[in-house]
Amino acid sequence: MQNRQAYLAAAALLVGLALLGLWGERFLLYLAMRVMILAIFALGFDLLFGRTGLLSFGHGAFYAGGAYGTALCYLHLSKDPLLCLLAGLLLATALALIVGFFCVRHTEIYFAMLTLAFGMMIFSLVWNLREITGGDDGLVGISRQAINLGLAKLPLRKEGQFYFLVLSCFGLVLYAVHRIRSSPFGLILAGIRENHLRAEFAGANIKNYRLAAFVISGFLAGLAGGLGVLLESNAAPFAAHWSHSSEPVLVSLIGGLNTLAGPLVGSFVFIVLKEVVMRVTPYWMLWFGVVLLVILLGFRGGVVGTLAQALGRGAKEARS
Amino acid sequence: MSAPLMEVRGLSKAFGKVVTARNIDLAFQAGELTSIIGPNGAGKSTFINMMSGSLAVDAGAILFLGRDVTRLPIHERVGLGLCRSFQVVNVFPGLTVFENVEIPVLVAAKRATRFFAPRAREAQAHEAVREVLERVGLAARAEVKASELSHGDQRLLEVAVALAARPKLLFLDEPTAGMNPVERVEILKHIRRLNQEGGTTFIIVEHDMDIVFSLSDRVVVLHRGDVICDGPPAHVQCDPQVRECYLGEEVA
To answer: B194, CA 20 to 30 Å: which among A34, A150, A265, B44?
Structure first.
């Protein structure tokens, strides 16, 4: 019953987004794409943070891996957008595998600080390797070429066309993360969060499970980074900065931990709020912070958690 | 006599100048319910930690089913059938009773790495989970969150989680700690029955002597890292050395 409702809600969301893609105006599409890209980033991140209980402050590095992989492929190898995305995914996943290998040996604050340190190392590489990464200028001039399907070509140049590539990725990621969350593997991750010692004595090699969760979240961060480059037509070094790594953390906390809807709601609130506040005041960072504080303090367990609790209470009262 | 289930040879461990295991030789037979007792600081917890892999040994060898497991990591020992429970309740508090048991069942069945298949279709595993819950008498509370169980039931659940990995040898570290007398009798009956049902041999580490004499086939007494007595409960009860170092302090 609950499952069916969730499927219906997801289907309604995707259909609604598709309709928006057909009739929405350009700026609205641009915002919707930013929400979806951030949601892809946050969905992967929450598998690690909300599900496995590991708080990373370095996932901006994998986002940047995806972004620079995509941009470098475009500039040096091939202009095929899917091939470029694939290159970005490879780079992000490889980075996540290496960084994760060292980080998953530790937990809690040590894990968080290690990921922060690795993230800043990668940022400084991006910042200083001017010949490769363009340094503080980043890599610019990446335009969206058509996807070549052999017989037909799918153009992506216009917002309204690229939108459907982003939407497809978003839909696929939503489905994949749902499958992972309801798999045996997903249950072991929850067990590691709840009690990693017990999980070890259940016979699980918890380092491998943690690493797997880390790499999956790094992969999805890379996908978000690659799509971000195609959307903005450039790769910027601050994608790897810790301030960008904090975005999925905030999104997870705003939306609610360890739910499928949490990262979606969190991403929506985050992007829309930022956009609105920026228009009203030049001190947008200050007011954005104030509003975030109110949400984080007012909605314990995130927007989704609070709503679910309220609905649950309502349902109980209706029954009694 | 058949080969022992587990054998310890020349086991030694010291923390600085405090010796918690001094050249211990012990063998445990399958099906023989053994208790390890000793006053505080006797080295009981250290012993269990070395057996289960939480603590490295200084010297000596641990053989399980004839295989040297001295340097094997925890999860591999569990995979061979060597598991333990803890002094403080150690379950997955935020998960349901069913999920608590499902985790070790899935790992033992080598299905835990399936990351894209729905868990709901793991019918065989779920059957095994229900069976374990029946055995310990928690079947009726399968959908309750572990943190909402009573203390006694949480300890039972812990035994269930440990049993679900289908261990051949299970160390229970003070299984009755923090229990009221009724719960205590209850869980001991369970342990006795589970040991008789076969498949799993229990070794209980206890502080309280009354418990173990009524329950065990064999009692091993540790004192400051030495085995000072080893035999059937009646024999151990009469041993003057045991009375002196252990009972003595309670009688006096």
So the answer is: B44
CA A304 to chain centre: 17
pTM of the model: 0.90
Task: Show the beta-strand stretches assigned E in chain A.
Answer: 139-140, 147-148, 153-154, 234-235
CATH class of the domain comprising B1-81+167-252: alpha beta
CB A22 within 8 A of CB A206: no
Residue B225 is classified by DSSP as T
Tell me the pLDDT tens digit for each residue of A138-157.
999 898 888 888 778 888 88
Q: Which residues of B touch A201 (CB under 8 A)?
A: 52, 74, 78, 83-84, 90, 162, 165
Q: Is A182 on the interface with B (CB under 8 A)?
A: yes
ipTM: 0.86
Q: In chain B, where are the structural domains located?
A: 1-81+167-252, 91-165
CA A266 → CA A194, A195, A294, A299, distances in Å?
23, 27, 14, 12
How far B250 CA sits from the closest chain A CA (Å)? 35
The answer to whether the beta carbons of residues A14 and A171 sit under 8 Å apart is yes
CA distance A138 to A228: 13
B165-198: per-residue pLDDT in tens? 889 999 988 888 777 777 777 778 888 888 888 7
Where chain B has pLDDT below 70, the residues are: 1-2, 246-252
Cα B36 to Cα B205: distance, rounded to the nearest angstrom: 5
Query: Do residue B102 and residue A187 have CB atoms under 8 angstroms apart?
Result: yes
Contact A183 B117 (CB under 8 A): yes
- Both tokens of A93, joined, read 């996943």
